[in-house]
Specification:
It is built from four helices and seven strands; from the N terminus they run ββββαβααββα. It is α+β, with helices and mostly antiparallel strands. It has a five-stranded antiparallel beta sheet with strand order 2-1-7-6-5, with no helix packed on it. It has a two-stranded antiparallel sheet with strand order 3-4. Helix 2 runs antiparallel to helix 3. The two termini are 35 Å apart. 21% of the residues are buried. Bound molecules: zinc ion (ZN) (2 copies).
């Protein structure tokens, strides 16, 4: 089943919802704003992301489902261990460990799954559905975010 992280239009809090029923009314835990989510058939069936349940937009991009803290931890541990070897004059080993940490990071990154993100409200979609959205485009993001923020009265 598709998991959706709906972004509150008022405070940007992430609100996890399952795409199992047609429409869901949820209340933001951060600011108390009431949202009505309209799930399309494709969302409910975990087939694809065609319409955003929060802002009704149809423009999405793909990004890696990356938790930055994991990557950072690997590099920090690598740098610490490497620093110890460097201190004892074993700089070749030190560089080796640092390179290994970066390498592990790259492997972790390449194994991550893609998730789909709504350009306008940044709602995230995770599931087994077919990924069809293009990569992130800064210009598109600029245009669509401004349009959305004007529509919900944040600018
Ligand atoms: Zn909120
Ligand atoms: Zn949206």
């Amino acid at each position: 089943m598709m998991q959706i992280l709906a972004k509150c239009p008022q405070c940007d809090a992430g609100l996890p919802v399952a795409a199992d029923d047609g429409s869901a009314a949820i209340v933001c835990g951060g600011c108390g704003h009431a949202l009505t989510l309209t799930m399309s058939d494709a969302l409910r069936a975990d087939r694809g992301v065609d319409a955003c349940p929060v802002c009704a937009g149809g423009d999405f991009y793909m990004r890696k489902d990356f938790d930055p803290t994991i990557g950072l931890t690997v590099v920090v541990i690598g740098a610490t261990v490497s620093g110890v070897f460097y201190w004892f004059g074993k700089d070749l080993i030190a560089y080796g460990i640092l390179a290994a940490a970066v390498f592990v990071d790259l492997i972790v990154y390449s194994r991550l799954k893609d998730l789909t993100v709504c350009y306008r409200c940044h709602t995230e979609f995770r599931g087994a559905y077919a990924r069809t959205a293009p990569a992130f485009d800064l210009h598109t993001a600029d245009v669509l975010e401004q349009e959305y923020e004007r529509r919900i009265g944040r600018r």
